[in-house]
Amino acid sequence: MKHLTLTLFSLLLMFWASAQGTAAQGAEQATGLRADGKIYVVVAVAVTILLGLFLYVYRLDRKISKLEKASR
Amino acid sequence: MRQYWWKILSFILLLYTFIAGFLIKVPTIGNLYETIRNLFFHVPMWFGQLILVSVSLVYSILYLRKPQHNYDLYATEFARTATVMGCLGLLTGMIWANYTWGAPWNNDPKQLGAAIALLIYLAYFVLRNSMTDIDKKARVAAVYNIFAYFIYVPMIMVLPRLVESLHPGGKGVEGNPGFGGNDLDPTMRMVFWPAVAGWTLLGVWISTLRLRVRFLEEQKHLH
């Protein structure tokens, strides 16, 4: 599970890096996060929400597992 | 050993939905334009809800056949997650309707049916909480849950198809052409069904979390 978190985090970093790259090239370059009417920005927002939601549910799962272990 | 692969599968499916759902090419139908992408988010709420209430129904029937307390807990918690998903489905539908049908509430038969169905399920929880005797509560709730399911299905799946409806599949559809059945684009299918599976699995996950808390509570009371 740790590996998964690490992978996701590095993916996020990659996204961020590519966003920075585009910004440096100037606004007229319609690539990466600025392409197609900036729809990728919406994707990034939606995926962030999804990540947060799943992280929350995962933590809840872990917490309940711990409680179950303690009550056994 | 508790299985966890399906939780990861749920995450992967939804991640896929959230990325592909925004980026694939969609057909232009009527006045829907890009809002047709709501098919990947609004409709799976209802499909997931239907699957979860079906699971709840199965446990209610199992309880009536063999009164085990666990069955009652399963039926309750699956119905609870299903009700949350139904509320989200209703709300997202209202947002969508506001921008394509002109108003959040159009007294569309499917909207009315869904609202009534949700109220029937809310009454299930009111009924449960009105009784203190555990066995009596479980038995009455199981009977009511079966009744609720069989009023719910005609409400959202049969009645809207018999009358004129803004939703796809109704008689004499105006304003919003249907994209159900054969009209659904094959590329859209490739996002839609994984979305349904992903949301359903997430619903099951949340239900099992609640169930585990309930079991912990019961254990505490026993000791």
Summarize the topology.
The complex is a heterodimer of chains A (72) and B (223).
Chain A: H1 2-25, H2 35-71
Chain B: H1 5-23, H2 42-65, H3 69-100, H4 109-129, H5 134-162, H6 186-222
Helix pairs in contact in B: 1-6, 2-3, 2-5, 2-6, 3-4, 3-6, 4-5
List descriptors:
heterodimer; A: 72 residues; mainly alpha; 2 helices; elongated; B: 223 residues; Four Helix Bundle (Hemerythrin (Met), subunit A); globular
Quick structural summary:
The complex is a heterodimer of chains A (72) and B (223). Chain A is mainly alpha-helical and 72 residues long.
What can be said about the biggest beta sheet of chain A? none
- Work out the radius of gyration of chain B: 19 Å
Categorize the overall geometry of chain A.
elongated
Mean pLDDT of chain B: 87
- Give the helix level of chain B as a range of percent: over 70%
Mean pLDDT score of chain A: 72
Count up the domains of chain A: 1
Q: What amount of the residues of chain B lies in strands?
A: under 5%
Structural class of chain B: mainly alpha
Per DSSP, the total helix count of chain B is 6
Order of helices and strands of chain B: HHHHHH
Strand content of chain A: under 5%
Number of strands of chain A: 0
Low-confidence sequence ranges of chain A: 20-28
Can you walk me through this structure?
The complex is a heterodimer of chains A (72) and B (223). In chain A, 85% of the residues lie in helices and 0% in strands. Chain A is elongated and about 55 Å long. Chain A has 72 residues and is mostly helical. In chain B, α2 (42-65) crosses α5, α2 (42-65) packs across α6 and α3 runs antiparallel to α6. Residues 174-179 of chain B have low confidence and may be disordered. Chain B has one domain: Four Helix Bundle (Hemerythrin (Met), subunit A). Chain A binds chain B through residues 4, 39-40, 42-43, 46-47, 50, 54, 57-58, 60-61, 64-65, 67-68, 71, and chain B through 2, 7-8, 11, 14-15, 18-19, 22-23, 202, 205-206, 209, 212-213, 216, 219-220.
